[in-house]
Structure formats: C-alpha cells, structure tokens
Amino acid sequence: MRVLLVEDDEHVADALTAAMRQFGHDILTAPTAAEALTKLEGCELVLLDLGLPDLDGVEVCKRIRARSAVPVIVLTARADEIDKVLGLQAGADDYVVKPYSVHELRARMEAVLRRTCRCGLGSHDNAPCTAERRDVINVGPLSLDLRSRSVTLSGEPLQLTRKEFELLAMLVEEPDTLHTREDIISRVWDENWFGSTRTLDVHIGTLRRKLGSYDWIETQRGVGFRLGSPSTT
Ligand code: CA
Fold first, then answer.
1. What separation in Å is there between the alpha carbon of 191 and the centre of ligand 1?
2. Which of 8, 42, 54, 71 has its CA 20 to 30 A from that of 124?
3. Model pTM?
C-alpha cells in the first residue's frame, strides 16, 4: 500500500518509514503541509502529524479532504485536537495519540482500510461504493462505536479495556471470518509477541463475561475464534 507520511520530526519520520517498509508498504514522506498536498495523488492512506511548521493540522486535514477521499489517520500529541479533526469539517478517519506503538498504528491503519470502502475491497454488506465508513456496527443488542471506541449492550455501556475493544471490534467487523489465534495476536497484540497464548484466552474469557454470554464468541478449538450469536439475540 502506498502511504503518505506527513511529519516534520525527522526522527519520527525515519522510524515510521522503516517500520512501514518492514510491513511491506510503499511510503512517501512530506515534512510540511505544502509538500504533502503536492504528493497526495496515488496515495492510499495518509498519516498526518498535526503539529506541522507551515499550517495548522486541522486545516491540512480539511485541504486534503477537499482534494481527495483518501483515508487520513491523524497522529497527535494533542488530545484536545481530536474532536476537531474527527469532526465532519476536517474529516479525518481515525487518530492515534502519541506516544503510540507502530503495531498499534498498523492495527489502526488496517482497521481504517477495512472500514473505508474502496470499490468493493473491504466493503461490508451490500453497501454501495460511495458509502461512508461505518462508525457504528450493530449486531443484535450489541453496538460498537469505532470512532469513540465505546460499546453498548442493550443500551447499557460496557467498560472494555483497549485490548478487549480491539479484540471485539476485530470479531464484529468481520463476523463471518474465523480468526486464527495467530491472526488475533498479531493484530491486537504484536506480531513479534511470543508470550503465552493464554493471554488471549484470558481476554476472551473476560470479554465473554462482560458480554454476559459465552455465546458471543465462538471457539473453534485449536484454531481460533469468530463472532457467535447468543440465544438472547
Ligand atoms: Ca510535528
């Protein structure tokens, strides 16, 4: 995938470039907003640092959006900016607050691409190609808001940890897919994570408890997990 990284901090840019190349992405960099706007064409995803020397990040985001529907993930240390960039006006697709791990960023990138309709690739259901990305996914009484990262069950908020949310979002976003243990671990944790896979079972267990039913998550013994359908739905 061709990624445009807009970041003025050379160290951050170098580190991210190396990581993205390792993940097999073709990465272009731009240290200023002005340069970024000239490099948009052909890019499939933009990683945008909000603190740029020449233009306010929210404004950059708006200008990108004015020219292109390319997914934009904002990288920011400024939590107070998030509402503005995710608002309709600026139109970012997601954000990652610094400090973040490259694996977290990668997971966000994949999630954004899955949610962003690209001519049938990664589209859900029978949504038309021009569909907005889905912010909220409903499965029976369960509702996940991918933007605010909140979950409700029959209207009652569920308090999930970050990992539990990622895990549930992964299952809910691709309800027909049997996710292997390795796939879940590499996406929710870290692909270089060689710890005990018991951590995954523990999280699945807690998630099932919080969801109030074992049946929300179907186990394929020795293989992995997929979204289940509890009898209450
Ligand atoms: Ca910066």
1. 28
2. 42
3. 0.53
